[in-house]
Design a protein that fits this description.
The structure holds 2 protein chains of 2 kinds. Helix content of chain A is 78%, strand content 0%. Chain A contains 20 helices and no strands. In chain A, helix 4 packs across helix 15, helix 11 packs across helix 14 and helix 12 packs across helix 20. Chain A starts with a helix and ends in a 19-residue tail after the last helix. Chain B contains 1 helix and no strands. The longest helix of chain B has 52 residues. Chain B starts with a helix and ends with a helix. The model of chain B has no long low-confidence stretch (mean pLDDT 79). Classes of the chains: A mainly alpha, B mainly alpha. Chains A and B meet through helix 3, helix 5, helix 10, helix 11 and helix 14 of A and helix 1 of B.
Chain lengths: 485, 54
């Protein structure tokens, strides 16, 4: 990496940090810290949502899929876009949650079910979320070391540096600084992504990539229905998990909570669907391009093939731009996720357990303390945990620890008056038990995922029919009054 | 069969790239205005709480 590249990276990082630090003066109350005073507009909201959900790890796992499955995995990108578009057009779940003036997802469980359900959901979400986030720093630091030519022995230092920078402006400015820095980071990310894609198209060529996929993966590289790692079961599972991810995933839902009103929420999700298509398809294309660049026979590691290609393909200046975009993507993900999961730990687990009012300042201190504690945990988890297989499947299974149960309990609570406390408990517990099959029973990710969903629905039905509550869904505040937190 | 899948994924890839570029341009232009409005709103809230406190 040349001096020019280091300068571009340093300037973009420093600038983002200064701006993120500078907006902390706007955070006076807990609702400013967690949901930016509920003043988020359509375009800044879309940028914030998308840049939080894109990190270096997103490029890595999608490129790994593209390298291993060729164009077949594009089906996953189509599913994501389709689900996000449907959520945006209908406002399914997210519009109702926004109208309830919530700050976290488990908060809904206390409003609709009981405090115990809220704490249980909080524990499951914080566990799954922290385990999910726990592999980010190691994989991303490894990517950075490969591309920047940093020796592998500095992996821990790169991990720590990534987390510390993300931590500084998250802990200080909360959602306000996250939104502002997300906007700047999105612009860098989009510029870097599009530029690199055109460079790859120029270097390897579309026809070169399709020929390589056909030659090395055959028919399975194009047809998702016949590929052994994909197929109809994978497609159905993706539909389910992305419906949950686009509605009850804390960092996604927080953008809905921070939006000005329910109309803004719908517009954010509709625009996001277009960007989520590119978020999946473009890195998958990079992975397929790496397949053409190295070939399967070269024994390139699927996870590191794409970064190795980037480091040998990109000229100085462009490498710096791409790295600035990638780092921006990762920092926005850290800030969004650290804030999202730590807000659950502080608001939904610790606060209900403390049982005494903390006041605005005490709540803010607790939230910031949880952000720091979570960052320390994921640094250590990244160091001790070895991935059992594909990063994509690990991330989906850890997310599924709570996603199926949370989605079922929330959707039933919003749309089914008979949904009860017992049903919610069973949905959450059985969903987590189903997902654990991936870790302890060696089930495939799709089988464990389906198991979790099936058990969760069964638990909600059984619990609610055995001990129904007949409690109507909480009445939402009118959208016009939603500015008051 | 490979030919039809290939054509389909070619269309999907270039469409997703075009959509990504278009929406990104829209965000770069309109997102800035959103941020200005957010700060005006937060300043207004702070001003009201300062008045209430004094």
């Amino acid at each position: 990496m040349e001096v020019l590249d280091w300068l571009i990276v340093a300037f973009s990082l420093g600038g983002t940090l200064v701006i993120g630090y500078g907006v902390r003066k706007y955070v006076g109350r807990l609702s400013d810290y967690l949901v930016a005073g509920r003043g988020l507009g359509v375009y800044a909201g879309t940028a914030s949502l998308v840049s939080t959900e894109i990190g270096i790890i997103t490029y890595l796992y999608y490129a790994e899929l593209g390298f291993v499955t060729g164009f077949s995995c594009f089906i996953a990108g189509l599913i994501v876009a389709l689900v996000a578009f449907a959520v945006g057009r209908t406002g399914f779940v997210v519009a109702r949650l926004r109208a309830l003036q919530l700050m976290t997802i488990p908060q809904y469980f206390e409003v609709r079910y009981s405090r115990g359900v809220r704490v249980l959901a909080g524990v499951l979400m914080a566990t799954g979320g922290a385990l999910n986030l726990g592999i980010f720093p190691r994989l991303e630091a490894s990517f950075l070391n490969i591309v920047m030519g940093i020796p592998e022995e500095y992996l821990v230092a790169t991990m720590a540096l990534l987390l510390i920078i993300g931590l500084i402006y998250t802990a200080l400015g909360g959602m306000v600084s996250v939104i502002v820095t997300n906007y700047i980071q999105y612009l860098l990310l989009a510029l870097g992504t599009v530029t690199v894609t055109f460079v790859m198209l120029g270097a390897v060529g579309w026809s070169g990539i399709t020929s390589a996929v056909e030659e090395q993966l055959g028919r399975d590289g194009f047809n998702p229905l016949t590929h052994p790692d994909l197929g109809p079961v994978f497609i159905l599972w993706q539909l389910l998990i992305w419906t949950a991810l686009m509605t009850v995933w804390q960092s996604v839902a927080m953008r809905a909570f921070a939006a000005r009103d329910t109309r803004t929420v719908k517009k954010i999700f509709t625009l996001t669907s277009g960007l989520f298509l590119g978020r999946a398809i473009i890195p998958m294309f990079w992975g397929a391009a790496a397949l053409a660049f190295f070939g399967v026979a070269s024994k390139a590691d699927p996870l590191s093939a794409m970064p190795r290609m980037l480091s040998s393909l990109l000229p100085s200046g462009l490498l710096g731009l791409m790295l600035a975009g990638m780092l921006a993507a990762s920092l926005s993900t850290y800030s969004g996720y650290l804030l999202g999961w730590s807000s659950i730990i502080s608001q939904d687990i610790l606060k209900p357990l403390i049982r005494r009012p903390l006041g605005e300042k005490g709540s803010l201190r607790l939230s910031r303390g949880c952000v720091v504690g979570l960052a320390v945990f994921i640094l250590f988890w990244g160091l001790i945990y070895e991935l059992p297989g594909s990063a994509y499947f690990y991330l989906q299974v850890t997310g599924n620890l709570f996603l199926a149960g949370t989605f079922v309990a929330i959707a039933a609570g919003l749309y089914w008056d008979r949904a009860s406390v017992l049903g919610a408990y069973l949905a959450l517990i059985l969903s987590a038990a189903g997902s654990l099959g991936f870790f302890f029973l060696n089930l495939s990710a799709s089988a464990a995922g389906f198991g979790a969903w099936g058990l969760s629905v069964l638990g909600m039905l059984l619990g609610s029919l055995l001990r129904p509550s007949w409690q109507p869904s909480p009445v939402a505040e009118p959208a016009q009054r939603s500015s008051a937190p | 069969m490979i030919v039809s899948w290939e054509l389909f994924w070619t269309a999907v890839f270039f469409a997703s790239l075009a959509i990504f570029v278009t929406i990104s341009l829209l965000i770069s232009w309109r997102g800035f205005r959103d941020l200005r409005e957010l700060f005006a709103r937060l300043r207004g809230i702070q001003g009201r709480s300062d008045q209430a406190g004094s």
